[in-house]
Amino acid sequence: MLPSKLPEVGTTIFSQMSALAATHQALNLSQGFPDFPAPEALRQALAKHALEGHNQYAPMAGLPELRDAIARQLARHRNISCNPDTEITVLPGATEAIYCAITACVMPGDEVILLDPCYDSYRPAVLLAGGHPVHVPLSAGDFTPDWGRIEAAISARTTLLVINSPHNPTGAVLTHEDLTILSALVVKHGLLVVSDEVYEYLVYDNHRHHSALQFEALRAATFAVFSFGKTYGVTGWKTGYCVAPPALTAELRKIHQYVCFVAVTPVQQALTDFMAAEPDYPLTLAALYQHKRDLFNSALAHSRFQLRPSAGSYFQLLDYSDISTAADTQLCTQWTREFGVASIPVSVFHQQPPTQNLLRFCFAKRDNVLEQAAEQLCRI
Ligand SMILES: Cc1ncc(COP(=O)(O)O)c(C=O)c1O
Q1: Residue 185 forms part of a structural domain
Q2: Pair (33, 70) in one structural domain
Q3: pLDDT 10s digits, 100-143
Q4: Within a domain: residue 73?
Q5: Beta pairing, strands 358-362 & 344-345
Q6: Closest CA to 253 of 111, 96, 124, 75
Q7: Closest atom of ligand 1 relative to the 119 alpha carbon
Q8: Residues 127 and 148 in one domain
Q9: Mutational test site, ligand 1, from 13, 14, 29, 95, max ligand atoms within 8 Å of CB
């Protein structure tokens, strides 16, 4: 029998719930992907480049023209300047970027601080590198980081802290003050940071996205990770990028070249074309998704769920405390079967059982799907 390197890990809940939704022909609000098409020009560009024969390996760090486009976008939208040759790497998805960044930083025995609830790929990456994940809970209720508690969890073995804003699964967004405090902690304790910013453009109401790259001291210690899949609605294209100082980028690339080596060539070309033609497309997303969030939430106004509008990402949490005391894992399966709407139990994002009764719903869906899902949820 082969001993498992990840004995606690099974098939991810996202695959399980999408399969269950398909089996029961339920509306799938579980996995985080849009059910409506990406911009036609982007899809046409991919077809064009594949047909024209651009189907061989790209340069290891990513197509230079795409890295230039990323640098222009960071300057245009965030006022961040960076060197596309030494600081930007294009990888097959944010997931690989996170994996390579964690692998580059963590030596056997190192401790890594993860803030619970957290995205499910962080912990396995730490474990595979021989590190010890130290899980610190976000505050119950509003999911803000308790910086005092986080600092208390830092030891002489702590090398890395992972942050995620806008946050999956809670939709919480880190403030300017949060990142200022984090900058000071990073300098004081000599830490590295992975900043998962894949939902950077999906921020609502009066909230703003603050990138770790906008804080000088933090930037010097940070691998910032982004996803074209999330920003351009093409999660199946699995393409993302990492921005980090040259020394960190050099180590990240050493790992990337033996994990996947390159991202897909015609996808990179299509993204380059689209970014040149529609440089402000990402700025249209907040209004699109805020409309979807509001449509879903207002259709749930008379349900028995409690909700607090999500500040960012395309996830909305629903609190079912007034309906049931059963486990979220049980209810999300049961309600997929009985009420035809699939969601994700928030407990899977926690190491310790959570104190709240929450399910996560993805609102990156067509309006009629959101209305139908809300109507079915109102029957619970
Ligand atoms: C917080 C977070 N990070 C990373 C990813 C992975 O992004 P990609 O599909 O580009 O690998 C996701 C996808 O759901 C996510 O929610």
Answers
A1: yes
A2: no
A3: 999 999 999 999 999 999 999 999 999 999 999 999 999 988 99
A4: yes
A5: antiparallel
A6: 96
A7: 1
A8: yes
A9: 95
